Protein 1
Amino acid sequence: MTSPFSSGGRPAQGLPRLPTPPSGWPIGSYSTYQEAQRAVDHLAESQFAVEDVTIVGVDLMLVERVLGRLSWGRVLWTGAISGAWFGLFVGFLLAMFASGAEVTYQPILVGLASGVLFGLVFAAISYASSRGRRDFSSASQLVAGRYDVLCQPRNAEQGRDLLAKLAMRPSGSTD
């Protein structure tokens, strides 16, 4: 059985088939993912064997950023818009495959109206069933407290030396 996230049913070369903890020696630790990515980019530009490198997020946190307050108006508007998009899609499909040489807009309009109606109904049912327990919209993101760069032991010392040189350069420098 293959994972829906794998490419072509075969794992990428060097990746384990089952979830496993990362291995290797730490060669750098950074407070942001961007800094860790910059370090690995520096290693790649220095002709380092980056196949031996892993970026590991440590102290994971789920951050939920509140985007706004929900109201009946906002819920129904969002439901109508999402239903309209789906209805337009279905209407265009029906119009494309309708028999006859002439183009008719009837299937598109029926799809649009049906989509808006179903979007409104499903959004209303969903919001009403929450009974005010979640009157806000949000977006979730998984972030780490720090990002460690690990390297296989055979190249760890060389990687540490290259990253030490990177740390000594001014932060705006690109050479």
Protein 2
Amino acid sequence: MSDPTSDLVLYIGNKNYSSWSFRPWIAMEAAGIPFSDRVVPFDFAAGNPAFRELSPTGRVPVLHHGRLRVWESLAIIEYVAELFPDAGLWPADRGARAHARSISMEMLAGFRSLRNACPMNIRRPQRAIELPDGVMEDVARIEAIWREALERSGGPYLFGAFSAADAMYAPVVNRLHAYLLTSDPGTLAYMDRVMAHPAWKKWQEAALAETWIVPEDEA
């Protein structure tokens, strides 16, 4: 069994574009969990072949903990939450924790119209685009999720303190901001709080320093 105090290495894609990498990264960073990251860029048309050496799916993110490999964003977050139960990745209250996991799974499985039309792009200047059907329906559902959680918890984040649920929706914050998808004051205030978080700022700084361009993610 791997030692929880040994090094955790999170292999991720480009910080500018990789929404699935962003989720476990910001969850771990915000919780103060010690880890290192390794960027393996999307710089091949058919995907970087190095991914296959790191993960059984040939995709990132993947967490290496000694000989153990944990892949998929939410599975990584759950694994680290077990390693560091005092880090507060999930709400302490059982009902709130169930709610947080439910909306995190909804993010994992849903909102495909939004994700396909509006790729995460940290350095993208704010600009609206013509939207296909389904995008604004996704946005409305996300805003309803955030509104309900914030009303129940009182904020400042979805379940009070920054949690795994906020991490799962962090790339959506970028999407709504970059593509000008909302004008709701409550939504914008929550987005501002997330984007002001030190973990967000640290990721953003690294993303802005990257030079790789992925044309299909430059919507």
